[in-house]
Amino acid sequence: MTMPESALGLSRPPFRNYQFDGAYDEMFESPGVPRPHYRPLFQTLLDLPPEELRKSQQAADLSFLHQGITFTVYGNSEGTERVFPNDLLPRIIPHQEWRKIESGLTQRIAALNLFLDDIYHAGKILADGIVPKDLVYSCRHFRREMRGLNVPRGIYVSICGTDLVRLPDGSFAVLEDNLRVPSGVSYMLANRKVLKKVFPTLFRDYGVCPVDHYAHALLATLRALSPVNTSSRHEPTVVLLTPGVFNSAYFEHTFLAQQMGIELVEGRDLLVHDNVVYMRTTAGLRQVDVIYRRVDDDFLDPLCFQRDSSLGVPGLFNAYRAGNVGLVNAIGTGVADDKAVYAYVPQIIRYYLDEDAILPNVPTYLLTDATQRSYVLEHLDQLVVKAVGESGGYGMLIGPQSSAEQREDFRRRIEAEPRNYIAQPTLSLSRAPCFLEGEAQARHVDLRPYILYGENVTLVPGGLTRVALRRGSLVVNSSQGGGSKDTWVLRA
Amino acid sequence: MTEHRETMLSRVADSLYWMSRYLERAERTARLSDVDLQLRLDQSPGAGSGRWLGLLQALQVPAPENSPLDAETLTYLLTLDRTNPSSIISCVAAARENLRQVREQCGSDMWEQLNRLFLQVKSTASSDAGLLDSYVFFRAVQEGAHLFQGVTDSTMSHGEGWHYIQLGRYVERTDCVARLIGAHFGRLPHPMDQAVESEEYLEWVGLLKSCAAFQAYCKAHTAELRPLRVAEFLLLNPGFPHSVRFSVDMVHTALRAIGELTERKAEQPVRIAGRLRATLSFSQIDEIMASGANAFVDSIRWQCTQAHNAIHQIYFDYSVESALVA
């Protein structure tokens, strides 16, 4: 019996030790048979001496280190600045598949914005009983202060990063929405820059959609959200507000400010006088119209929210209420990415748009419901439990990989505060080849596309493919040993 | 549409200014240590301790209290001692930290250059290279600083931010060269207009080299060293980039440019620098030396501090009330 030629590839480096398990494989439709859109990459890797790739990887790592493309790991005093690991093998998404993602996410951001506008005004969806009232009002990220406040264009979430995973049948589903201050877009741009250097010919031949216009699109979005009071007066002054150099995403803040050509400010650079926001410049005070804030709600204004915060600007909320400054994203958007509210997003889409959700949710158990809770507590060793208000992979229990002690701990926490947790089946995220230890190894990945919503909705094709670099791990967050790779959306 | 004027945050200006000062200080310390190492190789053991105290004084580093000042202690203190804020590693780290806080202001080339220098210094700190290998290290720091300056001048737009970098560098340089001259002339009194001989000759070469001035001096006055000429060269030479006069000229130019750009022309720092510039332009070296080099450099340093304080008050840390009135 003869083997198909491509299957022979699996006996050759760098694929000699490539492993398959039950999970969907991005590259291979069956062991040794690459999917059509992965064939050129597969062939290139077989032809390329592994030594070459290893050199490219070293050059890329060094370039990341020299550029200081790092993130900060909290709770670790020594060497807190760490290079964000980048993997050289691109993740490839065919055009058709992307079109569906794009329309699904456009639909989702539209519905979520209508939802936020509704719950901070009339609250129709609550009165109609589609989403339970107490679920919304008990959410830690619900801001009473926002009731009745009209935000520019009625847009609350203009910058959104949604995490997508593949279900076992290979279709995409939404794992979670990040509607507060999503990060990671700078790595998407940095990865692209590296890959264009490493695989120039392959990149050209594939016909990959560009992503380099992201910063420009972001600036246009921010400008579009200038409040009415100021937009007629002059070209709006936009700034990016960072918590400062110790924030884990500081590199990204500097990067985006630089790419957009706007000022990167800290709380101490801003002040509010007569409900107008100014920044302190060498030539005196200058009015600020739009703030792209990378500071959480809690820390924005010590007069209004957390009182001991030194990151924010006293009086900022009043200036916002007075319509003298735009905040992006708006305050109080976290209620819509609460993991328990997430479970209702398909109903939310149906309620406001009268459409079915194009991208499904992952099945989610609400622990406030007694039947679901008792099921979850019995099956903790099979499920993933998440705290509703956390992000970054913190506050999570992965049942199959947990110890009895951890499960006991979560059982107690769930019973004490059922509203604070949800559970989902353990998804075996799809796997993609990564270049590790000098060969191709399969690792779990997800996908975070970035959505902008100003004058209209813009998605830069692709996004950040996050990789769980530890063998067998299902956690892709950078704070938990994750890395990333470039995502190629094909033009046709 | 109104004209778009570039703005600069006060905090950013402050960081660029200090970044530049720290880097200049690191380069200076590396150069002084380099020169000292060369002298040490030529001199009998023990001959250096007087110079070392002068060196520490010029760098404003307190001498270690409970250990004798020997070559190794001194080198460690000046290069890799993190507890000494003027050591090379502390200065490079501080420069980098300042730039990191404003890195969106400069091109990525500048940041990469400074980051690379920092990583190099840090890796030296964790290796255990011997004393004589430090020659390579001192050269690397000086070259790294020069490269950064080159990248800055050729990639950054010569606007307000660039002028703060200039300002920081030359304020620091004025202050340090003035201190070096003061310390040296205080320690080695020598007839002003006689050529320096034998024993002391190397020390005078050392002073010039500490200001990167030996070759330039030789071109102007031959290798015959006369204290008066050395003083004139280091204090009043208008074209040599490490002379006090040149540095003050640059401070004045930068301040005037910043004054124009921020429309704060007539403010105090420009006046102080202008007055200092006039003093240096119209002074005679024999008059200066007659009333004592020390008194002269002290007055320069005092005015430098005044200018620094004024810059701080006008551009970095003004009161909100005064700004709102304007």
Describe this structure in words.
The complex is a heterodimer of chains A (492) and B (326). Chain A has 492 residues and is of the alpha+beta class. Among the domains of chain A are: 97-184 and 211-353, 3-Layer(aba) Sandwich (Rossmann fold); 365-425, Dna Ligase, domain 1 (2-Layer Sandwich), CATH 3.30.1490. Chain A contains 16 helices and 24 strands. Chain A has helices at residues 5-8, 39-47, 50-67, 95-119, 124-127, 133-137, 185-198, 200-206, 214-224, 228-231, 250-260, 316-321, 339-342, 345-353, 370-378, 404-416, and strands spanning 28-30, 33-34, 70-72, 81-83, 86-93, 159-166, 172-178, 238-241, 263-265, 270-273, 276-281, 284-287, 290-293, 326-328, 365-366, 383-387, 396-398, 421-425, 431-436, 439-448, 450-453, 457-459, 464-468, 482-489. In chain A, strand 16 and strand 17 form a beta hairpin. The longest helix of chain A has 25 residues, at 95-119. Chain A starts with a helix and ends with a strand. The model of chain A has no long low-confidence stretch (mean pLDDT 90). The mean pLDDT of chain B is 87. Chain B has 326 residues and is mainly α. Chain B folds into 2 domains: 1-156, no CATH class; 158-326, no CATH class. At the A-B interface, helix 3, helix 11, strand 9, strand 11 and strand 12 of A face helix 1, helix 5 and helix 15 of B.
Question: What's the helix and strand layout?
Answer:
The complex is a heterodimer of chains A (492) and B (326).
Chain A: H1 5-8, E1 28-30, E2 33-34, H2 39-47, H3 50-67, E3 70-72, E4 81-83, E5 86-93, H4 95-119, H5 124-127, H6 133-137, E6 159-166, E7 172-178, H7 185-198, H8 200-206, H9 214-224, H10 228-231, E8 238-241, H11 250-260, E9 263-265, E10 270-273, E11 276-281, E12 284-287, E13 290-293, H12 316-321, E14 326-328, H13 339-342, H14 345-353, E15 365-366, H15 370-378, E16 383-387, E17 396-398, H16 404-416, E18 421-425, E19 431-436, E20 439-448, E21 450-453, E22 457-459, E23 464-468, E24 482-489
Parallel strand pairs in A: 5-24, 8-9, 8-13, 13-14
Antiparallel strand pairs in A: 1-2, 3-4, 6-7, 6-21, 10-11, 11-12, 15-18, 16-17, 16-18, 19-20, 20-23, 21-22, 23-24
Helix pairs in contact in A: 4-14
Chain B: H1 10-42, H2 49-58, H3 71-79, H4 88-100, H5 108-126, H6 134-155, H7 160-187, H8 198-210, H9 214-221, H10 227-236, H11 244-261, H12 268-282, H13 285-290, H14 293-316, H15 320-325
